[in-house]
Amino acid sequence: MVFRLSRTLTRCLFGIWTASVLILVTGCWSKEELNDRSFVTAVMVDITEDKKTELSIGFVLPNRMQPGQASSSPTKQPYTVITQTGGNLAEAYQLIQRGLSRRITWGSIRVIVIGERYAKAGLEPFLDFFMRIPDIRLRTPVFFYNGKAKEISAIKPVFEQFPSEILREFAHLNLAPEVTLKDMLYTYWSGIGDGFIPGLKYKANVNLTEGGKQEPRIVTDGASIVKRGRAVGKFSDTDTVGILWIMNKLDSNSVQTVLSPTDDKPINVRMLRAKTKVTVSKVRQNLMFHLKIESSGELLSSDSDLNLASPAAIVQLESALSKAIKSQVQNALNVARKHHADTFQWSDMVRKKYPDLWDSWKNDPKETLWNRAKVSISVDSEIVRIGASRFSKPPRRKE
Fold it and tell me: Whole domain around residue 326: which residue ranges?
């Protein structure tokens, strides 16, 4: 018993001594100091009129920032954007690095924006470049800008500290269908090649807090259709809602507007739950994709005279909501079918479930996919709350 106690005590003392030594020798894990790094917040890529690659990188300026404050001076922005052109992205990147006194660090990147010209020319060089950066965040949101990408840097953030934070919140709040660098790299390496990129556009904005000056503002602008690595078409803002339904990414607080079944006046429903399941089945040599959508919501506002005290009226409203959702999904499918683009990457599902059928479409499998595929959409909607009043509109007082 004494021997066991002594051995236990020896092990404890050895552990305490080892921990003490490790605490004393701890230090910076990297040989490069923070003062020698330039932290990237945003990247914008495009092609100039003379066919050169243009790379713009946004950096944080630590010398203009103080702890607990947005910036050390209200007249100076805590960020800067540096632009260079070259034969490709690597050459433009090297030119930017040569002009900096610090090493470019990618770990804090927030957003990537691709200009219209670059996206239409082909995304393969873009993906090849970022695939080889070891410290880049794969969850970085990617956007398509309908114009010259570096125009994004001209916006002045009001609610956020950096312009990149505005775009990042667009993706996180599901104001636009989120596409990350990881999604694009998977599409590229898996051989799918098709997809979509959420769009942005410039809009003039009158800033009342700045003396009524007109300042640039960036808003969402549908989504760009990508086919074989190139931008070939566009989804409208309305179509992107259908994309969110199909991809099962609709935000639970989104608002759907439906027309009243009695007088065609608008009724707004806030979605509380939204779920989409996509399956595929084979019918001989053809395919049938099944979209099953389940949703529930609460009444937000109404301009209709629909009598909500009637259970039959609620059933009519639920049917109208289902038709509105189905129409949004169908519109998105029609646009993808028009361009014969595997926008929702259903070919990956077919290739895994029916490899023999996929192999039989060797000549042009994606074109064959839309020619041989049909889509059935079933929507089951439920109104779970109508508010404190059972009237769509307050009853009018008699004069």
Answer: 238-399
